[in-house]
Amino acid sequence: MLNLIHARTFLAIVETRGVRSAARMLELAPSTIIDHIRQLEEELAVPLLDRQTREARPTAEGERFLPIARALVKTAERAPSLLSDRRLRIVSSSNVGIYMLQPSIADFQTTAGITVETWIGPNPDAIDRMGRGEADLAVLEWWDERNGFSARTWACEPLVIIVAPGHRWGGLDALTVEELITEPLLGGEPGTGTGRLLRQQLGPLADRLMTIGGLGSTEAVKRAVRAGRGASVVMRSAVYDEIAAHQLVALSLRGIALSKEIKMVVPEALPSTAPAMSFFANTGPERSYPVA
């Protein structure tokens, strides 16, 4: 059985980059610190620290163990509050958190009687917060499959091409890839995974897309598209209101079904009775949006 005290010692060594500094931090003798790491490495059957360098640095195996150790220690530290104050901390990528997740959170708060705290921001930052143990659950546009977590597909969200109603494509239902590469394609927040998805789906033709980035958010992209600056590829749920109000037109890509698998992630160390596990097992998207 993995010892949480040993895991905490490992984290202290990595954070302070030394045995003696970790000993001072934890108020333990250096010999005790060394013994903790020895026992931990024996339990895991891998070397966790590189002893060939002056500073204590994790080995490749140690790097893989870091998020697991952080999640274990954070969960242990939060155990008393989890028992006395049932809260759920959710992190989410911007587009999912803004355009998809809120109805599910509201329903969960009402039916479970549990307060939900949310952090919404760039997908890479949400992953980092999850890895540091700062959240109980994440809902993301992509997940890096790191160790120590369980993930499932929460939704399969279609992507659409959007243009202004007065655009030359405003009366169409679908485009070919050859047509798409003739129009400036506006990009919003970095790190959403949309560019990677387009490269996977379009192959070499993706290199011919006239991508213009730097707008920072999907809201800014929608404003720019409405102003006539070009087209964009966005999650369908992000433009439901604008489509209904005839402020934007949504088109599909002929012969290619563009969609994102929205991932829900929880730490493996969470008990089955934790609010995150209830949300993880029972919650799905509230509605499916029409394209037109």
From TrEMBL:
TM segment ranges: none
Source superkingdom: Bacteria
Matches recorded under InterPro entries: LysR_HTH_N, LysR_subst-bd, WH-like_DNA-bd_sf, WH_DNA-bd_sf
PROSITE patterns named among the record's database cross-references: HTH_LYSR
Domain HTH lysR-type positions: 2-59
Keyword terms, alphabetized: DNA-binding, Transcription, Transcription regulation
Molecular functions per Gene Ontology: DNA-binding transcription factor activity; transcription cis-regulatory region binding
Pfam families xref list: HTH_1 (PF00126), LysR_substrate (PF03466)
Family named by the database record: Belongs to the LysR transcriptional regulatory family.
Record-given protein name: HTH lysR-type domain-containing protein
Protein source organism: Bosea vaviloviae
